[in-house]
Design a protein that fits this description.
- By secondary structure, this protein is of the alpha+beta class.
- The chain folds into two domains: 144 residues, no CATH class; 226 residues, Sandwich (Immunoglobulin-like), CATH 2.60.40.
- Helices cover 21% and strands 35% of the residues.
- The chain is built from twelve helices and 21 strands.
- The strands form four sheets. Strands 3, 6, 7, 8, 9, 10, 11, 12, 13, 14, 15 and 16 form a twelve-stranded mixed β-sheet that branches. A four-stranded antiparallel β-sheet has the order 2-17-4-5, with no helix packed on it.
- Helix 2 packs across helix 3.
């Protein structure tokens, strides 16, 4: 018994020393977090399982917020985030952003590659006018392949002569009642439909909305899931993406279509994007949603997708192998509880795990089947609504 106590005391001494070393230079910064979020901290710190960085008040491990002196030196106010397709993308800009330097931050879907780029939005009148065909249509809609990785998925591609935001309506038995949406204007389009059921006939059509809000629809295309190939890679895995060595911007420019400003980005692969303004370049007017000094740190925090998925993989390197799939979209019929957070409609690590602490093992948000049934309702399992991979 005496030996056990000695080991315990030695462990506590070592743990205390490691905590003091790890917190040097960061804990005093995180203590500011605790001042505002004291109720959350006091509640979570007493839970059954507590995330170690949270316990040590090292909020920067996941959120990567800057120290006060660093935050004071940074001038970027982030305005929006979203997903971009491979090829040409057009992102609408506000006319109020004139006379600002626009900061573009791109990250590929694997989280391995990042590009920062800056462009000066001088004056709307000075932007190059880009013209596209006024008559919009949907060209060459086709299903490229049906494949199985974690789920059965189908890849659809099509083109539009006019930059368009599109939605895919799809379903079985001739009733396309489920919908997927694009978030930016593109000419070359690609959407992957996930969570399909084996041995079914599917029907889909595309609805496109142009920059001037004109709409057009395609004829129905059909495909089946009786045969599928095995995918060689999946965006949720931590390995290198297939193809070339990284993320590349083929073209970046500020353009004008009609009287509206756009950021044109041509990429070699799908990517996440964040747009911000460099306030130090501001010349003539103010922006209404500039963050106030009382919340000056929050623009420096990572997005939910970055903090709740990409940053998790830095420490939990092999978690994708044995866990629920992440970086995939929820099926349309799923309606998870509000505390099952998603990022851009996708499941992340923090959808199931509370990143601060929980009364359950592994910091899960619910226990056992209650967690699964937050999304996968028992009645839907009974009706074999979800296709489970073999």
């Amino acid at each position: 018994m005496a030996g056990t106590w000695k080991k315990l005391i030695l462990y506590l001494i070592i743990a205390s020393a490691m905590t003091s070393v790890a917190c040097t230079g960061t804990c005093h910064a995180a203590s500011r977090c605790v001042k505002c979020h004291e109720k959350l901290f006091n509640t979570k710190i007493s839970e059954h399982t507590v995330h170690r960085p949270f316990m040590e008040q090292r909020c920067d491990v996941c959120h990567e917020q800057k120290l006060p002196q660093q935050a004071a030196q940074e001038t970027t106010t982030w305005k929006m985030s979203g997903e971009l397709n491979k090829g040409t993308n057009l992102i609408p800009l506000s006319a109020l952003w004139q006379n600002y330097e626009i900061v573009v931050r791109l990250q590929d879907m694997s989280g391995l590659y990042r590009i920062d780029k800056k462009l000066i939005f001088d004056r709307l009148e000075g932007l190059k006018t880009t013209k596209y065909m006024s008559q919009n249509e949907i060209l060459n809609p086709q299903v490229n392949d049906v494949h199985r990785d974690i789920f059965i998925s189908a890849s659809l591609t099509w083109d539009t002569p006019c930059p368009s935001r599109c939605e895919i309506h799809y379903g079985t038995d001739g009733s396309p009642d489920e919908i997927l949406y694009e978030t930016t204007y593109s000419i070359h389009h690609h959407i992957e439909i996930q969570g399909l059921k084996k041995g079914r006939e599917y029907h889909a059509f595309i609805r496109a909305e142009g920059i001037n809000h004109e709409t057009t629809e395609s004829q129905q295309v059909s495909f089946n899931t009786k045969k599928e190939t095995v995918a060689s890679s999946h965006p949720s895995k931590g390995g290198k993406p297939a193809g070339n060595s990284g993320l590349t911007i083929n073209k970046a420019a500020l353009v004008k279509i009609g009287s509206k400003p756009f950021l044109m980005l041509d990429l070699n692969r799908n990517a996440l994007v964040r747009l911000g303004l460099n306030n130090s370049t501001h010349i003539s007017h103010d922006v209404s949603d500039t963050v106030t000094s009382a919340r000056a740190w929050h623009p420096k925090l990572l997005s939910l997708y970055e903090a709740g998925y990409l940053n998790c993989k830095k420490c939990h390197k092999n978690s994708d192998r044995d866990s629920h799939p992440v970086n995939i979209r929820l099926l349309p019929e799923m309606n998870p509880p509000k505390d099952f957070v998603t990022a851009m409609g996708k499941v992340t690590c923090v959808s199931c795990h509370d990143p601060h602490g929980s009364q359950y093992a592994f910091s899960l948000r619910r226990n056992n089947t209650a967690l699964c049934q937050g999304c996968h309702k028992a009645t839907q399992y009974a009706a074999n609504k979800y296709q489970v991979p073999n």
